[in-house]
Amino acid sequence: MKFYRNLHPFKVISFDLDDTLYDNREVITAAVARFIQYVQNLTQCPSFGEEWGELKDQIARKNPRLSEDVTEWRKEALRQFLVKKDKNAEEIDRTLTFAMNEFFHWRHRITVPEETISVLNSLKTDYKLSVITNGNVEPSRIGLTQFDLILRGGEHGRAKPHEDLFLQTARYFNIAPQEILHVGDNLITDVQGAIQAGCQAVWINLSENTLADFSEATLLPTLEINQLTELLKL
Questions:
Q1: Rounded to whole angstroms, how far apart are CA atoms 99 and 55?
Q2: Secondary structure of 143-206 in the HEC alphabet?
Q3: Which residue in the list 16, 18, 164, 190 is annotated as catalytic?
Q4: What is the C-alpha separation between 136 and 7, in angstroms, rounded?
Q5: Which of 90, 135, 167, 180 is spaced 20 to 30 A from 30 at the CA atom?
Q6: Is the pLDDT at 25 greater than 80, yes or no?
Q7: What is the dihedral of CA 213, 167, 104, 116, to 10 degrees?
Q8: Which region holds residue 171: left if phi is over 0, alpha if psi is between -120 and 50, else beta?
Q9: CA distance linking residue 137 with residue 108, whole number of Å
Q10: By C-alpha distance, which of 77, 201, 181 is closest to 129?
Q11: Is 209 a residue whose pLDDT tops 90?
Q12: What's the chain's average pLDDT?
């Protein structure tokens, strides 16, 4: 555990989800692959993956606010692809529904470490717990029911590192932003976002990197940990 700023008393601990409470890398890769394969089979268009990726890039450039909501961003790219293929409205609605259901089925094939569950259960006895994520995982679908508030970027407000979701959390619990301790793996979206919003930030460094490895990161966290169990020492 390394401290970079003074740690002040806090009442709420907010968490990022992906790559903070569990390893997300293989799950999201598999979910995207299943999604692409499903649409390819449904539309008989083997180039879907490439075309869909290009459409996503175009949407992000033209409408960056939409791309903050990763679910709606995915759906809009698929909708535009289907329009290009001259699908009628009924076909578009049906394909969107089935394809997104397929994606979310595989998106939630996450195995949460028992250690994570144990830490959250221990912390819940003394603190309010919340989620601030830019992803689209529903915690209850993967067995995480310890949270009093769940906010997702795009769906509930501006995505991290924008201060919106952090300030919403403070208002929800009727506390000052500094009384939130946010835990996340990303030095930009989690640490910079939290510090800019006036919160405190824990960088969970699971890959043995150093701060010097991230030249784009401009703000120091309150503290750095290497495993979730270190939170119990606070």
A1: 16
A2: CCCCCCEEEECCCCCCCCCCCHHHHHHHHHHCCCHHHEEEEECCHHHHHHHHHHCCCEEEEECC
A3: 16
A4: 30
A5: 90
A6: yes
A7: 60
A8: alpha
A9: 7
A10: 181
A11: no
A12: 96
Q: Which two tokens stand for residue 221?
A: 């966290």
How far apart (Å, rounded) are the C-alpha atoms in residues 189 and 16? 9
Closest CA to 36 of 83, 74, 66: 74
Closest CA to 105 of 137, 135, 145: 137
Of 188, 202, 133, 195, the C-alpha closest to 163 is 195
Q: Would you mind telling me the total number of residues written for the chain in this entry?
A: 234
Write out pLDDT tens, residues 79-136: 999 999 999 999 999 999 999 999 999 999 999 999 999 999 999 999 999 999 999 9
* Distance, CA of 53 to CA of 133 (rounded, Å): 23
Could you tell me which of 228, 128, 204 has the C-alpha nearest to residue 169?
A: 128
Give the model's pLDDT for residue 218. 85
Six-digit token string for 123: 């912390």
Q: Where are the alpha helices (DSSP H) in the chain?
A: 25-43, 48-62, 64-67, 70-84, 89-107, 114-124, 164-173, 193-196
Do 201 and 221 form a contact (C-beta atoms < 8 A)?
Answer: yes
Residue 40 gets the label, from left (phi > 0), alpha (psi -120 to 50) or beta, of alpha
| Cα distances (Å, whole numbers) of residue 194 to 49, 63, 77, 163, 181 | 35, 24, 30, 7, 8
